[in-house]
Amino acid sequence: MIELNLENAIDILKKDGVILYPTETFFGIGCRIGSESAILDIFKIKKRLLAMPLPTIASQLEQVFQFAIINDIIKNDVIDLANLFWPGPLTFILPARNFVSDILTGGTKTIAIRQSSHPIAVALANGVNEPIVSSSANISGGTPVTEISAMHKDIIQHVVGYIDSAVKPQGGLASTIISFLGNKNLRILREGAINASAFLENNFIVSR
Fold first, then answer.
1. If 86 and its partner were Cys, which of 53, 82, 161, 184 is the partner (CB 3.0–4.6 Å)?
2. Other CB atoms closer than 10 Å to residue 125's CB: what's the count?
3. Comparing C-alpha atoms, which of 171, 172, 178 is closest to residue 193?
C-alpha cells in the first residue's frame, strides 16, 4: 500500500480503485459511488454483509440532488438541515435514483449521504464529481481507527493506497442518521454526534 497525494487518489478513484482516506472521525475506505466493481470490493475487503448498505459522502448539496430523489414534500427540510448542520456528522437517508447501484444500497433503494467536515473527504468527492463511499476502514464489526498505523493488515493488503492529512481524524461519536417525513417532521434512526434537542431547537418535530 502506497501513500497518495490528492491528485493520485482522485485518479485511482476515477479508475475504479479503492483507497483509504481520513474523515473528521475515523479513516474511511472508499470508492466512487458509480463504480459497482469497487463497491463490491469494499464489501469483500471489510467482510461486510451485502444486506448492509454503505454510507456515502458528498462534496456539496448539489451532489445529493443528483443521486437522491428529493420531492417537494421534503425538499425544504433537506435544504434547511443541510444549511444548519453540514458540513458535519448528520447523515440523510433518502430514496436513491434508479441508476444508484442496488449493491451500494443493500437493496433498500435508499442512499445514506452526508457532507463531511474533513477537507480531504470533500476534495475527493469534488474531484471525481460524484459522492464517494465512506465506510469505516475496518473489518466489519471491528474497531474503527484514527491512524494508518493501526489499520488491520487485511485492509492494508487489499486497497491501492491511502491519503493522509495534517488534519487528523478525531474519533468520537458517529454521525446521527435521520430520515424525512415531510413538513418539518423527521425520524432519528441513530442518534450520534447531533442529538434530538438540536433539531427541536430548530423547530423540527422528532420521532424515533
1. 82
2. 26
3. 172
Distance CA 62, CA 40 (A): 26
Inter-residue contact 20 to 128 (CB < 8 Å) = no
Task: Tell whether the model's pLDDT for residue 137 goes beyond 90.
Answer: yes
pTM: 0.95
Residue found by looking up cell 465512506 in the block: 134
Task: Collect all residues with Cβ–Cβ distance below 8 Å to 167 and sequence separation of at least 6.
Answer: 22, 118, 119, 120
Q: Which residues on neighbouring strands pair with residue 206, listed in sequence order?
A: 186
- Give yes or no for residue 78 having a pLDDT over 90: yes
3-state helix, strand, coil in the chain (%, to 5): 30, 25, 45
Give the pLDDT band of residue 172 (cuts 50, 70, 90): very high
32 Cβ contact partners less than 8 Å away, ≥ 6 residues apart: 13, 14, 16, 38, 128, 130, 132, 133
* Alpha-carbon gap, residue 114 to 88, rounded angstroms: 8
* Per-residue pLDDT reduced to its tens digit, 27-76: 999 999 999 999 999 999 999 999 999 999 999 999 999 999 999 999 99
